[in-house]
Amino acid sequence: MDFVKRHIVSPGKTPHLKTVETDESGPFKDKDAAKQFTAETVDKIRDLQYRMFVEQKQSLLVVLQAPDAAGKDGLIRKVLGQMNPQGCRTYPFKVPSSSERAHDFLWRIHKATPAAGMVSVFNRSHYEDVLVVRVEDLVPKSVWSKRYDIINHFEEGLMERGTKILKFYLHISPEEQLSRFKKRLENPDKHWKLNVGDYAARDKWKDYREAYEEVLDKCSTRDAPWFVIPADHKWYRDASVASIVHDTLVKMDPQMPPVDVDLDEVRQLYERELNQQRG
Ligand code: AMP
Ligand code: MG
Hints:
Layout lengths: L2 H5 L23 H25 L3 E7 L6 H7 L9 E5 L5 H4 L5 H4 L8 E5 L8 H4 L5 H4 L2 H14 L2 E9 L2 H13 L9 H8 L1 H15 L6 E5 L3 H19 L10 H16 L1
Parallel strand pairs: 1-3, 1-4, 2-3, 4-5
InterPro entries: P-loop_NTPase (IPR027417), Polyphosphate_phosphotransfera (IPR016898), PPK2-rel_1 (IPR022300), PPK2-related (IPR022488)
Keywords: Kinase, Transferase
Organism: Rubripirellula lacrimiformis
């Protein structure tokens, strides 16, 4: 199955999120089949990431946005965080600090973008500045409404330098979210994630949906597309994102740099050492 085609938001074809299924299971006959596919795909991602790291020309930025409990952390743990940490970093973006607030909204973001050869994974992102900021009225409309263009220009600048950008919205139903909140309550290891604000956000589900639809509409571009990932099944979420990241890296086609040493000379040095060691 072509997960890119299935989930990409093509410019001018923004879906109504209300009508997009959250519980898709794709081509997988069961959970185990999906997990097997994800494991194999993650291995292939690692090989390509290694080539990109050595090539040191291109880079990859993965943006994750989602309602609470939709699975950003799980996706990072099981898929994106499986890349070699020498070449991959995750950046969580929380409520801005006072020093971050004293700068333009992209200041903290720009510093986290990937250098040549690297992958950055954003757990939340600059898009919060047109999502939570809009829904919670944190700045006036005259301010946030200008940000879509600012974001598109910013991303164009990153692409100009060789950064490929993939943006994922994890699409979960309110029923599945509530069932995950229940599991959090029941599991003491997850109590640190509990947050009364998460319940308040449920009352604004429709406002968030509208804010997300505007993001998809204005900021899903041909070269920095958004994907809407059905996320009620964790295994489908992992498999589809893994597949999209893999296909993207294949297209980027990172190359090992040409060898600039004389292999015969190195072989001779090796033989000499070996002979010396043998006495
Ligand atoms: P979590 O990802 O659950 O740890 O929560 C991080 C919180 O930070 C979320 O409630 C976000 O909405 C909030 N957040 C992230 N970026 C911003 C921002 N630019 N302005 C306001 N709140 C933000
Ligand atoms: Mg949270």
